[in-house]
Design a protein that fits this description.
The protein is an alpha/beta fold and about 525 residues long. The protein folds into four domains: about 110 residues, Rossmann fold (3-Layer(aba) Sandwich), CATH 3.40.50.720; about 180 residues, Rossmann fold; about 110 residues, 60s Ribosomal Protein L30, Chain: A (2-Layer Sandwich); about 80 residues, Alpha-Beta Plaits, CATH 3.30.70. The protein is about 35% helix and about 25% strand. It contains 17 helices and 22 strands. It has a seven-stranded parallel sheet with strand order 8-7-6-9-10-11-12, with helices on both faces. A six-stranded mixed sheet has the order 14-13-15-16-17-18, with helices on one face. The longest helix is centred in the middle third of the chain and has 24 residues. The structure holds nicotinamide-adenine-dinucleotide and (2R)-2-hydroxypentanedioic acid. Nicotinamide-adenine-dinucleotide binds next to α5 and α7. Belongs to the D-isomer specific 2-hydroxyacid dehydrogenase family. It catalyses: (2R)-3-phosphoglycerate + NAD(+) = 3-phosphooxypyruvate + NADH + H(+); (R)-2-hydroxyglutarate + NAD(+) = 2-oxoglutarate + NADH + H(+). It comes from Baia soyae.
Length: about 525
């Protein structure tokens, strides 16, 4: 039974699938203090949040069984994604479900800003009738500068165009082709800032976007520009915004999000030209249902080990690619484990080479699997999610390359590992009807099914060595299923690879090691 902890309010309809799943126990505990969360997380398999719950590194470390954190929404800035990655916890979001709602909210804020609707409402219900004070401006023919033309930015652009606004956009990933398709003018950040009558930010909050709009940017704006933030508090420097409003450089600001939420006694609240909402962008019945459905379905898939998408800390693999690479998964994982088990010394570099049919595919997911195979022999708690990050942290260089040398195999994958002591390699292929095979070990040709108990013996090619190995194994009642031998030259360096029917202990290993001309005996388990 999987335990799923939900710590923020989520739509009941949205989480129906979880509530009805027979293999899931849903625990709903909202408004937890950080201390209570540290206790609640201890034995759950999944955590579902919106933007209120702060999922810190401490929370993740306490979640000993935690496999997945689901964010019902887009922004994952309330989750320590790096800590999750390091602990091998998948972070999922629901990126599509609230796009329309947030774009509509931004548009509502823009119209409110242009026509002073919140201020006029407040004044009118207080018994005033100040028609002259609340003269607004039209959106028609004004320029809207959008910073961050992703899902919400693009949706906002469409709405603005319907209101006959000129749309200028800055996004580092915006191509001319997409700009043209959306009917927006591609600009640099400073061009966009300088041209906008309205400027709306729609980026994630990252190191690069924190205070993206600060004093310098405000000085570049048109006099009387109006600014909106319905993305994340902190993209606009609130102190700089306050100064720009007080100086009259900026005519108005609409904020749905704040550097600290909920904001207390915010100086901006004292300014008449500032309109605010309490992080309501995604707060519609439709958006909340959408994101809760999306994230519940995805979390269930992770728990049930089915294919999932939308992982923030794992590249998503399209279904057609998943289908193509599936047959290679066992081979590459076994190749990684094999090389790791025959290698000695601290890892420095792992080179993976793809040749033949497989070289025509997107191989990054396979390399990730190999990394997991290699690293999990040396380190505990390595999985598909954290393997690249762990390699990076330990300074292990990863090289992925493609080659035209398939040596007669339809496909050939080779893993070469360099350690501080030596280098080791294994090559493998998929044989029609036989599945995964290891075809070369440290340069010696073999034909090995990579499963079960194995003995890897490095020795000098001498008459009688094979016999002595067989006799010793017989003495210890260990049955040999298959045996492979390979040598460089007659009497030269050689290897023996034996499939044995049961695990052996170190006594037999040491006895084998004492045999004349045997240099090294390694016990493998695949
Ligand atoms: N107010 C709310 O309730 C609410 C609701 C949903 C989303 N959001 C927030 O809105 C933001 C956008 O969401 P989205 O779904 O459109 O995300 P998205 O990932 O589709 O779009 C973000 C865009 O920002 C661009 N970007 C990144 N760094 C940039 C930079 N330095 N300068 C300019 N552009 C940059 C990216 O290239 C991307 O195109 C996120 O911060 C999200 O958390 C807020
Ligand atoms: O949970 C919410 O309502 C906010 C969601 C929003 O900020 C998001 O990033 O998706």
């Amino acid at each position: 039974m999987y335990k799923v902890l939900i710590t923020d309010p989520l739509s009941d309809l949205g989480i129906e699938k979880l509530l009805h799943a027979t293999d899931v126990q849903v625990i709903r505990q909202t408004n937890l203090t950080p201390e209570q969360l540290l206790i609640a997380i201890e034995d759950v398999d999944a955590l579902l949040v919106r933007s209120q719950t702060k999922v810190t590194a401490d929370v993740i470390a306490k979640g000993k069984k935690l496999k997945v954190i689901g964010r019902a929404g887009v922004g994952v800035d309330n989750i320590d994604v790096l800590a999750a990655t390091q602990h091998g916890v998948i972070v999922l979001n629901a990126p599509d479900g609230n796009t329309i709602s947030t774009a509509e909210h931004t548009f509502a804020m823009m119209i409110s800003l242009a026509r002073n609707i919140p201020q006029a409402y407040r004044s009118t219900v207080q018994g005033e009738w100040k028609r002259k004070e609340f003269v607004g401006i039209e959106l028609n023919k004004k320029t809207l500068s959008i910073i961050g033309l992703g899902r919400i930015g693009a949706e906002l652009a469409k709405k603005a165009k319907a209101f006959r606004m000129q749309v200028v956009a800055f996004d580092p990933y915006l191509t001319e082709e997409r700009a043209e398709k959306l009917g927006v003018q591609k600009a640099t950040l400073h061009e966009a800032i300088a041209q906008g009558d309205f400027i709306s930010v729609h980026t994630p909050l990252t190191k690069q976007t924190r205070h993206l709009i600060s004093d310098h940017e405000f000085t570049m704006m048109k006099d009387g520009a109006r600014i909106l933030n319905c993305a994340r508090g902190g993209i606009i420097d609130e102190d700089a915004l306050y100064r720009a409003l007080v100086e009259g450089k900026v005519a108005g600001a609409a904020l749905d999000v704040f550097e600290i939420e909920p904001p207390v006694e915010h100086p901006l609240f004292g300014l008449e030209q500032v309109i605010v909402t309490p992080h309501l962008g995604a707060s519609t019945v439709e958006a909340q249902e959408n994101v809760a459905i999306d994230v519940s379905e995805e979390v269930l898939k992770v728990l049930r080990e089915e294919a999932f998408k939308n992982a923030v800390n794992l590249p998503s693999i399209p279904a057609d690619l998943q289908q193509k690479i599936a047959p290679y998964q066992t081979l590459v994982e076994k190749l990684g484990e094999f090389v790791a088990q025959i290698s000695k010394g601290a890892l420095k570099k792992i080179t993976v080479t793809y040749a033949g049919d497989v070289a025509n595919m997107e191989v990054a997911p396979l390399t990730r699997t190999i990394l997991k195979g290699v690293l999990s022999h040396h380190l505990s708690d390595v999985n598909y999610i954290n393997a690249p990050e762990i390699a990076k942290q330990r300074g292990i260089q990863i090289v992925e390359q493609k080659s035209s040398h398939n040596h007669g195999f339809t496909q050939l994958i080779s893993v070469h590992v360099e350690t501080e002591q030596d280098s080791y390699s294994a090559e493998g292929t998929l044989l029609n009807g036989f599945g995964a095979r290891i075809t070369k070990v440290n340069g010696y040709s073999v034909d090995l099914s990579p499963t079960g108990h194995l003995l890897f013996i490095e020795h000098q090619d001498q008459p009688g060595v094979i016999g002595k190995v067989g006799t010793l194994l017989g003495t210890y009642k260990v049955n040999i299923a298959t045996m492979q031998v390979g040598r460089e030259t007659i009497g030269g360096q050689a290897i023996m690879l034996l499939h044995i029917d049961k695990a052996i202990d170190e006594t037999l290993q040491m006895d084998l090691q004492k045999v004349d001309s045997i240099q090294k005996v390694t016990i493998l388990e695949l």
